[in-house]
Amino acid sequence: MNAQPKASHFVDGAYVEDTAGALIEVMYPATGEVIATLHEATPAVIEAALASAKRAQGAWAAMRPVERGRVLRRAADIIRVRGAELARLETLDTGKPIQETVVADWPSGADALEYFAGLAPTTTGETIPLGRDFVYTIREALGVCVGIGAWNYPSQIACWKSAPALAFGNAMVFKPSEVTPLGALKLAEIFIEAGLPAGLFNVVQGRGAVGGALVTDARVAKVSLTGSVPTGQKVYAAAAAGMRHVTMELGGKSPLIVFDDASLEDAVGAAMLANFYSAGQVCSNGTRVFVQKGIKERFLQRLAERSNAIVMGDPLDEATQMGPLVSKVQLDKVLAYVQGAVAQGARLVCGGAQGPKGGWFVQPTVFADVADGMTLACEEVFGPVMAVLDFESEAEVVARANDTQFGLAAGVFTADLTRAHRVIGALQAGTCWINAYNLTPVESPFGGVKASGVGRENGHAAVQHYTQIKSVYVGLGPVDAPY
Ligand code: NDP
Fold this sequence. Notes:
Blueprint: E1 9-11, E2 14-16, E3 23-27, E4 34-39, H1 43-61, H2 65-81, H3 83-94, H4 98-101, H5 105-119, E5 127-130, E6 133-141, E7 144-148, H6 154-167, E8 171-175, H7 182-194, E9 201-203, H8 208-215, E10 220-226, H9 229-241, E11 245-249, E12 255-258, H10 264-276, E13 288-292, H11 296-308, H12 328-343, E14 347-350, E15 365-368, H13 375-378, E16 385-391, H14 394-402, E17 409-413, H15 417-426, E18 431-434, E19 453-454, H16 463-466, E20 467-474
Parallel strand pairs: 7-8, 7-10, 8-9, 10-11, 12-13, 12-17, 13-16, 15-16, 17-18
Antiparallel strand pairs: 1-2, 3-4, 5-6, 6-20, 11-19, 14-15
Helix pairs in contact: 2-5, 2-7, 5-6, 6-7, 10-11
Bound molecules: NADPH dihydro-nicotinamide-adenine-dinucleotide phosphate.
The site of NADPH dihydro-nicotinamide-adenine-dinucleotide phosphate has 30 residues, from helix 8 and helix 9.
């Protein structure tokens, strides 16, 4: 299998290589086979990327928003036409099954490009009357933005960050996770084909140090990171030193609360989606499934039946429903959480072992009788491991659901509409669902509270994170000076 790109980086409108950078081997998670060999960005590559972004940004910001939008819309169209080819590459890069990557990853990225293409021309300032005088405001671009991505949705993340950045007149230098570097390079190619001027979207590869060099550069006005809480803390602090804007999309340990009046089949299906989609490597996953005591055993029985029927295997086979984890490191981490849960006394309901040989597979795994203090209930696993906890009352479950440093997402299943809204109102989370889970349309703002992040991606909310306001006071009378 070969997924070798033309070169490691994409700078100023073209592929760029510098073999002096440390080696990055890209592996297909279903087999461990090396499918591409890249190099980390050297200081010279990083400098070229930032310099070209800085150079290109002013003219881009000066264009009419509708013209910028047209370029982004063309990019969305190209992504849709090439959907099958791009999905295959995403599957090779991440190991996620093709039945997911065909509908979720690039299509969601195309939605973001289309959405912000349309939003840019309608984003305006305001006029504030002051009697004789008035103030008007202008929403201006920030300048050069840095995007740093995680490995779970590499192409979607690249699109979700670049779409609003570019739509509002910024340039972006993007660093993918070193584990999944391929999709962002394709996006850079597609932007050029769509007519984006060179330098406005650059991709540089590398590990944390490359990200660190970007975040601290004086030319950078904003940093948007998708990653873990510890990385977020480092990047946020580094950005703060230069008074840069930030968006932080970080991890979670989100509650999914199932009351005894909920549709059992829907709640089971949602809990599975909330833990097994992308082999559980989704930041907003509902990994603490609180089930009301009366329905617990029925819930677990149906959950086990449906989980045991999940088809694992070759991610390129359209029948495969669950693929491997992204890396050997992640596999070892997830297996350690499984062993830790058994050791701490959680009841294994199904799964718990490695999946098909040769790749980094873990079976869909469910633990019941999980207590709040167990590691499995406190830490983000980022694998297909569901923790089921039981509860009796609404007040109790709300308090327990909120008793965490995280606040990315939350869900509630109930037939009682009043209770649904009351519980969601009391939960400390940025992105919530009632009788649904993990649906993230681009129209809806996405992000977390508490340690799960700062700022929002998508929706109208993203406008304020990629623009800044200039207030202009217009005096229409004589200057009233007391001197
Ligand atoms: P990491 O936090 O390990 O890495 C995120 C990115 O930051 C990577 O590109 C990484 O480079 C880079 N990085 C690491 N250190 C630094 C540094 N000091 N300065 C600048 N950049 C740095 O996360 P993972 O890639 O392991 O992704 C999983 C995490 O992402 C989970 O915690 C998950 O919850 C979160 N996530 C959050 C989402 C959200 O929207 N809220 C969505 C998806 C994932 P490299 O890894 O190449 O070394």
